[in-house]
Amino acid sequence: MIEDTKDASNHLLERVRDALNTGNPLAIMGGNTKRFLGRSVAAARVLTPLLVGEHRGIVHYDPTELVLTARAGTPLSDIEAALAERGQMLACEPPHFGPQPTFGGMVAAGISGPRRPWSGAVRDLVLGCRLIDGRARHLRFGGEVMKNVAGYDVSRLMAGSFGCLGVLTEVSMKVMPKPGHRRTLRIDVDAAQALRHMDNWAREPAPISASYHDGTALYVRLEGGSGSVQAWSHKIGGGDADEAIWDDLREHRLPFFDSAGPLWRLSVPRATPSLKLEGDVLIDWAGCQRWLRTEADGATIRRIVHGVGGHAIAYRGQTDEPFHPLSAPLLALHQRLKSQFDPQGLFNPGRLYGSL
Questions:
Q1: DSSP of 61-74, one letter per residue?
Q2: How many domains does the chain have?
Q3: 199 plus 169 within the same structural domain
């Protein structure tokens, strides 16, 4: 168990009270590894950094119940090390994108890795949280067991909120055992064939935990019991590939991501054919996630993606509004949530959308 612990919740509460009294908004920061995501806020008021990295430590970990609770500033590497000691892991396989990501930052960004379609997103695994809201109240939502998160689940709203609703201080999350056996296969097929394969395998009880196509080959990760992995290896075919590609995919270290040009993340229904968009594409999540390098304008990209029932996020460059525009009813819901949790607009104003 990690011994580096510190409860800095009182200090964080004081900082929020000061901001409430002065009206100065706060830029919530953990390890600052996801800073490139979201809007570049040029507010009339200067945002004061609120550093949560000192609020750290694993509060409770029950390997038998597969539940871990930790303070928001706990380094993600500490969480993963503690889980690995007991043969367990974070099922959402979150990216680090830097040397010191935090547990709370992982939840606030809500980004999941290659395992997401099979094991769940960050928000699916959040059981409960503690949060300092815009009235300087230290609130608790949810719990540490699944039965406590029925109904309207406030704690899962924090996943992907980018700190716009409050300061996360503690999160409880479901974890899972590491699989006993693993094998990665490479199959030389084009994108259309890869999409057909991935769609077909999704209809069968295949022990797949990740798959992506890099433009020339399809990579598939099989995990589970030795018999199942071996049987499906024979069924799928192809040759063995380096296991490190999944870490490289998760952390955007593959050659595809080396370009400094605009990068888009497209979320589409699984069986969607290749989209008529100029640029280079990497297909992830069994076809549900498409990474696109292109100089095409954002309006065109979003129109085409919306037309197939998906949405598009600008990960890098080219747009002042990186997140997919919200419909009027959905924007109104977001604004009501913001007004309830953060009525004075103290927390990361404008990070998600200009009107939040």
A1: EETTTTEEEEETTS
A2: 2
A3: no
Domain hosting 65: range is: 9-177+332-341
Measure the CA–CA gap between 330 and 150, rounded to whole angstroms.
22
For 118, 121, 188, 287, the CA distances from 201, given in Å and listed in that order, are 12, 20, 17, 12
pLDDT of residue 3: 53
- pTM of the predicted protein model: 0.93
Q: Are residues 28 and 160 in the same domain?
A: yes
Identify whether the C-beta of residue 207 lies closer than 8 Å to the C-beta of residue 184. no
Estimate the share of the chain in helix, then strand, then coil, as percent rounded to the nearest 5. Answer: 30, 25, 45
Q: What is the mean pLDDT of residues 83-93?
A: 97
Judge if 30 and 143 occupy the same domain: yes
Helix (H, G, I), strand (E, B) or coil at 115: coil
Residues 62 and 90 in one domain: yes
Residues whose CB falls within 8 Å of the CB of residue 152, separated by 6 or more in sequence, listed in order: none
Question: Does 321 fall in a domain?
Answer: no
**Helices marked H in 120-252 — which ranges?**
122-125, 154-157, 191-202, 226-236, 245-250
